[in-house]
Each structure stands twice: as structure tokens, then as C-alpha cells.
Amino acid sequence: MQKSADNQYLFSPSDLTAFLSCHHASFLDVKNLSDNLDKKEQDNTSKLLQEKGIEHEKAFLQKLKDEGNSVYEIDPNLDINDRISKTIDAIKSGCDVVYQAVLKDDNWQGFADFLIKCDKPSNLGDYSYEVLDTKLGKKCEAKYIIQLCVYSDLLAKITDNIPENIHLYLGDKKQYSFKL
């Protein structure tokens, strides 16, 4: 959970899953916005898992490139508004894959690993996109599905089209797809 420059709350899929699993965690997130609570330092195990997750994501990106897909990569070092603008440009360009997409609408914001082009018509033309996220886990979890649903809703605001499917690429190196 964050506050925007105009003092509005910005929610992410992680905020939603935190709320669904523990209301007190959400209370603490809101309190932290005003009181700046001390955060626990990330331990070595968490850092290692994060590094492994990034490696897994990068390996999948390379797999997509090796398959000959045109990939538009959003620079994570850009200002958030530039990243949102670049995401919209990438979607409109019709490239096969958008990597590190930033999706936003009103008070919701999400960072999708991949947007994958599909043949379903939209306001873009004879194509649209579906969301795919990489996760180190080896089984599909409800929180992953919720996250993808939020991303898909944000994506639908751009394409004027609700994606048919959502996708996970898990640590077992298999892709799982679900009807939305």
C-alpha cells in the first residue's frame, strides 16, 4: 500500500491478498503510511528466494526470446508514470510480449511480469493480451490467481476487453493456464 503524490491510497494485488489473509496486516500497512513503522530487515533466506525468483523470471524471458517472440522490455529504473506510459505504448505496438508491465487505474496499481499477445480482438485491433506471472512455487496458490485477476482487470481498462485466460509459469518449469 502506498500514497500517491496527491495523497490518495494506491492498492496492489499484494495488498488485497494480505487483507484477505489477515486484516491486522492491512491495518498495520495503513498505520505505516502515517507513522512510518520500523520494518523488519530482510533476512538472508528472503534475499536468496528473491534472487532465485528473479533468475526464474529472467530464464522465462530468455525462453520467450529464444522462441522468436518480439519483446518490449519496460525499464524498471524509469519513473512510475513513464513505466505506465511505456506499457501502454508497448501494448499498442502489438509486440508479442510486454515484460515488466505497469498497469494502473484509479487507486489500483500492478506490476505484471509478462503480457502475452493473443488472437482475441480488442480496441487495439485483431489482438489483445493476457497476463502471465512467474512464481518459484511448484503449485498454484489462490493468492497468485487473485494477483493475476487484478492485473487482468487493469489490463481490460486499456484494451476494453476482459482477457479469457491467466497464466502462471511455476518453479517446476511448467505453464498453467486458467479461464478468467
Q: Explain this structure to me?
A:
The structure is a single chain. Helix 1 (13-21) crosses helix 2 and helix 1 packs antiparallel against helix 5. Strands 3-4-5-6-7-8 form a 6-stranded mixed sheet, sandwiched between helices. Strands 1-2 form a two-stranded antiparallel sheet. Strand 1 and strand 2 form a beta hairpin. The protein is built from 5 helices and 8 strands; from the N terminus they run ββαααβαβββαββ. The mean pLDDT is 91. Helix content is 43%, strand content 24%. The chain has 180 residues and is of the alpha/beta class.
So what's the overall shape? Answer: globular
Order of helices and strands: EEHHHEHEEEHEE
Supply the number of helical segments: 5
Assembly type of the shown chains?
single chain
User: Which structural class matches the secondary elements?
Assistant: alpha/beta
Major pleated sheet: 6 strands, mixed
Overall average residue pLDDT: 91
Name the poorly predicted regions: none
Question: How many distinct beta strands?
Answer: 8
Beginning-to-end CA distance, first to last residue: 25 Å
Map the helices and strands:
Elements: E1 2-3, E2 9-10, H1 13-21, H2 23-35, H3 44-66, E3 71-73, H4 80-93, E4 97-105, E5 108-118, E6 128-134, H5 142-159, E7 165-169, E8 175-179
Parallel strand pairs: 3-4, 6-7
Antiparallel strand pairs: 1-2, 4-5, 5-6, 7-8
Concise summary:
This protein has 180 residues and is α/β, with parallel strands linked by helices.
From the structure above, extract its key features.
5 helices; 6-stranded mixed beta sheet; 43% helix; two-stranded antiparallel sheet; globular; alpha/beta; single chain; 180 residues; 8 strands
